[in-house]
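Meet our chain:
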Amino acid sequence: MRYQGKIIKWQDDKGFGFVRATSDSKDVFLHISDIHRLNKRPEVNEQISYELIKDDRGRFRATHVAYLTKSANVNRIEQPPKLSSAFLAFILIFFILVIERTLKGVLPVTFTLMLFGANLLLFLYYYQDKTSAIKKAWRTPESTLHWLSLIGGWPSAYVAQKIFNHKHKKQSFVVAYRLTVLINCSAVMLYSLPDLQNILISLLA
């Protein structure tokens, strides 16, 4: 038997929410993996139809979920987020600076290797976390993502957020991510550009 209802709560970063049937006041659990032909991210007040089961935790769960064709949102397919060409150019300049400073012996080789390693590892973490969100599996702690971003993995974090459509909408996460970019870039600039250090010291003296 199929029911009709609307999504009353949705946590996009975790991939689940709750549905309330139009003929009932009980809330039903909904996971993103149960949505048939997912062509857009679920939203609060989205009208859906679904079948009802009871999961191994004893709670009612919506399954074989489909958007109602009468919903105006069904025809609106969410476009993947675009990569900013300006920010990509900034990332390229950052890497060029790091490589140039390393070749001149200003930055330690170990630092540069750590930076590239952090970028590779963080990209894989984003992929794993996105996959886990869909499968309702163990998630990577946000603190881990931020620490890797802070030590230099922020370029791959930005690319992964856009490619995997992941973590770029949660405001608190975005603010923390931008802070890691600011801190890391400032530290690298100050360490790799002695002239800039002297200017700052003279201004503060």
